[in-house]
Amino acid sequence: MKTVAVFFEEAGTFAYPFTKKKYIRHIAQLGEAIEACGANFRVVRHQSSYLGSGEFSQSWELRDGQVIETGPVKADVIFDKGLFSSDGTIPVLNCQEINEICTNKYKTFQLFSDYSPQSYLVNTQEEFFEALANIPGQYKVVKPVDGLEARNVHIGDDEFLKKQDCPYPFLVQEFLDSRSGIPGIVNGVHDFRVTLLNGEILHSIVRTPASGKLVASVTEGGEMRVVEIELIPSTVFELVEHIEKHMVQYGNRFYGIDLAIVNGQPKIIELNSRVSIWDNKQHEVFASTKRKLAEVLVAL
Predict the structure, then answer these.
(1) Reported pTM
(2) What is the pLDDT of residue 213?
């Protein structure tokens, strides 16, 4: 029987993302979908545990909300939810090129600049101040090159941003003013995500920030709701097609495009190869996403 393993970058049974019970539940639901397709499911962690040819020195099962250590395992397929360095001996969903494009936000800007806010990679205070001066508008954005869940993202004017503790290198970006919303979908500031599996949009969501905030992240107190695919603006489909023309060369891929609509046009906030798969109880579309993801993984 084939074994599908989900790889996470951090070592330790309860390291990220299992620091939160809800994430254990989300991954367990994916495991159930994989097992329903006739395969075994395991969690593996950290590159140091990889022995080569699909073998890992440690693995875990997720049962009844528990994380259970199951010893060494031979995986036949890897779903990379970290930064797995493959030796090319077994199939991997989300290869290193996909992860590089999605986690390195400056790489995203370089590849898709026509749909991205103006961005500067800064390594010194002099470069930082120069970037602030070059970007128009009162508000700008400072963020890590490879951050997750809106961690250490700062939005404000020049004086505010100069006071933030941001380790170099980081990005300085044009602020995407999405206050005009998306007609028929959301009023005001938003973050609109489409999640794709091998070019197919599996679901789309819109997130809105908590009162008084500009970052539309659920981890920062924002709200999320599912948007029917037929409501997605045609300009977003054009953006998806443009990105997919580049991504298709890297093979099997599961990633999200986070964007904002600015003056009627979609602009990329970021790409995300470690996109959340959410809880089945939140909406049937998340159960459907896991079923389709499981089918692809087991077929690799």
Answers:
(1) 0.92
(2) 63
